[in-house]
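Problem: given the chain below (178 residues), write out its structure.
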Amino acid sequence: MSMNADLEKLIVLQRLDSAAHAAKARLAEGPEREQALEARLSAAKDVVAAAKAALAESQNVRREHEKTVALHQGRLSKFREQAMAVKTNQEYHAIQHEITFAQTEMKAAEDAVLEKMLEGDDLTADVKKAEAALAGEQKAVDAEKKTLAAEATALKGELDSLAAERAEVVRSEEHTSE
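Solution.
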């Protein structure tokens, strides 16, 4: 066998080995790429969880303000009943002072309830937006995972084909050198 033929076979073997090495390297990146996809999905889920937590906290605070409103409404009813039964001007002024204080506190709590209702609307919108973003990210990640799986299958096929081609080149080398 001539020197040129040997050199050509070495070049072919080198090309096959390089292609196989590149395919193996790409396959080895698969788990890391998969982790990156999972991290993206996890980040989107964290945004949804944070938005839901903020909404829940706002609703809890609103309920506390609503309880405060109810408390002051009860106190006002009691004070108004007491106002009907007062005997002195001093008692009447004291009750009026209590009524004014309860009304002021109730108004502040009602304002806080309204503020939390408006905030709740914004936070509900944030939750919906985060959930929509998560759904979009889930679709994108699923599509990329399918692409990764298809690429892995193709790379494994390519490796098999390269190995078979390499074996054929080596076999033909053995036959010609005999």
